[in-house]
Design brief:
Helix 3 links the parallel strand 2 and strand 3. Helices cover 33% and strands 21% of the residues. The longest helix has 14 residues. With 177 residues, the chain is α/β, with parallel strands linked by helices. The chain starts with a helix and ends with a helix. It has 6 helices and 9 strands, in the order H-E-H-E-H-E-H-E-H-E-E-E-E-E-H.
């Protein structure tokens, strides 16, 4: 994609303390590519929140999977871990947690659930670049972190742009491909 994009990927990866950062065309495509990299498709379910931009559910439906909505925590408007736990079925292929208003979802509880249930956790960080949970930046605690640089976001660009982070080299290669 060129030296400027590569430099930006390296700078954001360093800022977030992520092993890999891959520039993509938008935040929506960041979530879509993360789901695609996990093989989400028809017959699968993905647990997410209804209290967010429509792209969270649309990316799931676009792949033929079913969005399953978990409730939010009324204190911070992010996914309620107990509701996520109840929403997981044998058909659950992933969880998409959306960090809203610069505030992190409860990544400790969500990661514990995801690991115990064997379900990958995708972080939608479109509204929370730089936010932290337990001293770690959002976008570095799940299987993938997905960022948007739409002009109205916390870190906007001219037009649209996005980024996918991961600590897994094979998954980063899959996103680049």
């Amino acid at each position: 994609l060129g030296p400027d994009v590569e430099a930006f990927e390296h700078e954001v990866a360093a800022f977030l303390n992520s092993t890999h950062a891959v520039g993509v065309s938008s935040g929506t495509d960041a979530v879509l590519l993360a789901l695609m990299a996990l093989g989400v498709g028809p017959g699968d379910e993905v647990v997410t929140t209804p209290f967010t931009f429509v792209a969270s559910a649309n990316t799931i439906a676009r792949l033929g999977a079913t969005p399953v909505f978990a409730d939010i925590d009324p204190e911070n408007f992010n996914l309620d871990p107990e509701s996520v736990e109840r929403a997981i079925t044998p058909h659950t292929k992933a969880i998409v947690a959306v960090h809203l208003f610069g505030r992190s979802a409860d990544m400790g509880a969500l990661n514990e659930i995801a690991q115990r249930r064997g379900v990958p956790l995708i972080e939608d960080c479109a509204q929370a670049i730089g936010a932290e949970w337990g001293g770690r930046r959002v976008g570095t605690m799940g299987t993938f972190g997905c960022f948007s640089f739409f002009p109205a976001k916390n870190l906007g660009c001219l037009g649209d742009g996005g980024l996918v982070t991961t600590q897994d080299e094979a998954l980063a290669t899959r996103i680049r491909t």
